[in-house]
Design a protein that fits this description.
Elements: H1 3-33, H2 35-47, H3 59-104, H4 113-123, H5 132-157, H6 161-200, E1 205-211, H7 224-229, E2 240-241, E3 258-263
Antiparallel strand pairs: 1-2, 1-3
Helix pairs in contact: 1-3, 1-6, 2-3, 2-6, 3-4, 3-5, 3-6, 4-6, 5-6
The structure holds zinc ion.
The site of zinc ion has 8 residues, from loops.
Length: about 270
């Protein structure tokens, strides 16, 4: 087994661990952003009359107050996503450092690396033309709209606050796929960006390799990560790129491909 094989095996294992971390991050984000359900329940209780329903005449005011709910959604979402990105960056930097030190005996240069990754991920424009805060805001807006539509119809029907709270929960549960998509995308981008940036600063690797990791998807071969992983752009081998080639940081949304440093010949 060459040192490169050894490193490849460790990075594959790290990618699996990052997948488990992402699953926890999804749960965390859904729970954090879901705090808004409690805020709405309190608001509905304030608006309800003695009979447990809300008068139609109060509908417009209540819907206006949902604006504050959207602000909370954005705040919970922004805080959760920032924490997740930081966690994935830290995870990648720490694990890569331990792995490289173990295999070739050289420590990576990690000073201010986490912050650079966070800055990159927060300001990155996606294929959608949006930055992270726009994506959090648009997700918040969609959830707010879905909840507002439900509340409007429940109030007009004269439903009780108890029913409305239950319906808000259902509406939220139906939208959590959007949160999942956001978390998987951003967490993995932070992970790959951190892997590339740590390789870039290291003397042990001038090149990195992208490994595609999503073979369960029926159209996986159409994914950008698959194409990149099988492209020999520089004549260095399939999937081998410069750590500064930012297209490998985020090949497509929800991409779980990962980055392995390619050891320079003197370290093999
Ligand atoms: Zn992919």
């Amino acid at each position: 087994m060459t040192k490169q094989d050894e490193l490849d095996a460790i990075f594959k294992r790290i990618a699996g661990e990052h997948g488990k971390l992402t699953a926890k991050q999804i749960e965390f984000a859904i729970r954090e952003i879901g705090r808004v359900r409690g805020d709405i329940a309190n608001m509905l209780a304030d608006y309800a009359g003695a009979n447990g329903t809300i008068k139609r005449s109060r509908l417009m005011r209540l819907l206006r107050e949902l604006e504050t709910v959207e602000q909370s959604l954005r705040q919970y979402g922004t805080d959760a996503l920032n924490g997740i990105i930081e966690e994935s960056a830290e995870f990648a930097v720490k694990r890569a450092n331990v792995a490289v030190e173990k295999v070739v005996g050289v420590a990576l240069v990690t000073a201010s690396l986490n912050q650079n990754v966070i800055d990159y991920v927060a300001s990155r424009f996606g294929d959608d033309g949006l930055v992270l805060s726009d994506r959090v805001w648009s997700t918040s807006g969609v959830i707010r709209d879905a909840i507002a539509t439900q509340l409007r119809s429940d109030i007009i029907k004269g439903e009780s606050v108890g029913t409305m709270v239950r319906n808000v929960r259902k509406v939220y549960d139906n939208q959590t796929w959007m949160i999942k998509r956001l978390v998987v995308t951003e967490s993995n981008t932070a992970y790959r960006t951190a892997s590339c940036m740590s390789a870039e600063r290291s003397e042990v690797a001038d090149w990195v390799r992208i490994v595609e990791n999503g073979s369960r998807h029926p159209r996986h071969k159409e994914h950008a990560c698959y194409k990149l992983a099988h492209e020999n752009r520089y004549g260095e081998g399939d999937g081998i790129f410069r750590p500064t080639d930012t297209e490998i940081y985020q090949p497509h949304i929800q991409c779980s491909s990962y980055i392995v440093p390619v050891l320079n010949p003197e370290y093999l």
